[in-house]
Design goal:
Outer membrane protein assembly factor BamB, membrane, about 0% helix, mainly beta, palmitate, Quinoprotein_ADH-like_sf, about 400 residues
Length: about 400
């Protein structure tokens, strides 16, 4: 069994910070405490929890930002202790579940997948479900019942969801490689090797984005990279961060969030870097502004929403990057990446709360508590519902309605 540890140097003083989904500023002996929530808050929109469920122990203490995916009315979720499950997205009814292990790491449990400590995924397309593990495996399974079809053995942790497109399963590993696997068999078609991976990095990887025959992703050294989908050849790259500073921590410049494509424009962020808009076909920068973030932006209409490294929620003009508004009420609550549900921005926080902010002016509109555990994964919006998962595998489905 290959080691499950990332090939990066971890500073002891940063370990508690990384556990909160990123590297944040320390203040004396601890990180900044979360800003208290207003006790006299009056919601302006009604939120109904439609259903809740749980999948194993979730991501646990791994630092992985693993969340669910919704495809064709079914929600799929996995956990690092080896559970994989499918639910009816409307009602929460469990359709099926599989457990790959029962007694730990050293040879007990499912003889076929005794190492399946899921951490990357799931991803679903048609009847195929793909999911990666902490020890560098990718499994191709039936999306109908979780039965196994194939297994691919890679070189490092898979802690972000694969992408299934056409006859390929695209996978990113923690050692800086991107793989193109055969959809039917899991055989390796091609591999792209980033080369020199920084010794110091934020725990996590941004997911791959596949569109128009190209694979886009943010790299561990703060670049947005575009690859040919058919053979993995690099087409272009653009810097999202400059890696400047006196210390290793100051020079840390991961692009750990998802790259977002809206029309033909790509949007990406980096820690100690910038929020950048790039023309997708050419790789030409359209605009850039300084903005340090360990998460993913969200785009809706003519606005781009993002959370910075102090957990302030920002809105920018899509066409030029000008500020539209900033909300400080959730500062240091170590928010998830934002999602957009109708006229609201949705984020989860370190104490298990889910917050809705108005897209027009950033005013807080509602909040609900999923649990008392941190929410690191970006909320998932499908139809009129938003699905939120915390680090212990609790999943909540919420719908908005007028008061």
């Amino acid at each position: 069994m290959k080691p499950v540890f990332k090939k990066f140097v971890w500073l002891i003083a940063m370990s508690s910070l990384v556990a909160l989904s990123g590297c944040h500023n320390k203040k004396k002996d601890n990180i900044e405490p979360p800003t208290p929530l207003a006790k006299d808050f009056t919601p302006t929109v009604k939120v109904a929890k439609v259903w809740s469920a749980r999948v194993g122990e979730g991501a646990g203490v791994t630092g992985v930002r693993m969340g669910p995916v919704v495809v064709d009315g079914v929600l799929y979720a996995a956990s690092t202790d080896g559970e994989l499950a499918a639910f009816d997205a409307a009602s929460g009814k469990k359709l099926w579940s599989k457990k790959s292990s029962t007694h730990g790491w050293f040879g007990w449990g499912d003889k076929h997948r005794k190492d399946a400590f899921y951490a990357g995924g799931p991803a679903v397309d048609g009847d195929l479900l793909a999911v990666g593990t902490l020890d560098g495996h990718v499994y191709g399974l039936s999306s109908k019942d979780g039965s196994q079809r194939w297994e691919a053995d890679l070189n490092s942790e898979v802690i972000t969801a694969p992408v299934i497109v056409g006859d390929l399963v695209l996978v990113r590993t923690q050692d800086g490689r991107v793989y193109g696997l055969d959809r039917a068999s899991g055989d390796r078609r091609w591999v792209y090797d980033q080369g020199n991976v920084p010794l110091l990095s934020v725990r996590g990887n941004g997911p791959l984005l596949a569109a128009n025959g190209v694979v886009f992703f943010g790299s561990d050294d703060g670049k947005l990279v575009a690859l040919r989908m058919d053979n993995g050849e690099k087409l272009w790259e653009q810097a999202l961060a400059n890696g400047e500073g006196r210390t290793d921590i100051e020079r840390l410049d991961d692009a750990d969030g998802a790259v977002v494509l809206d029309g033909t424009t790509l949007f990406g962020t980096a820690y100690h870097g910038n929020l950048v808009a790039i023309d997708g076909p050419s790789g030409r920068p359209l605009w850039s502004r300084q903005f340090s973030s360990y998460g993913s932006p969200a785009v809706s209409g003519n606005m781009v929403f993002a959370v910075n490294d102090q957990s302030q929620v920002w809105a920018f003009d899509r066409s030029g990057g000008a500020d539209q508004w900033k909300n400080d009420a959730l500062k240091y609550r170590w928010l998830s990446s934002p999602a957009v549900q109708g006229s609201y921005v949705v984020v989860g926080d370190v104490e298990g709360y889910v917050h809705w902010l108005q897209t027009g002016d950033g005013a807080l509109a509602a909040r609900e508590r999923l649990s008392k555990k941190p929410i690191r994964a970006q909320p998932v919006v499908a139809g009129d519902m938003v699905y939120v998962e915390d680090i212990k595998g609790h999943i909540g489905a919420y719908r908005l309605s007028a008061n």
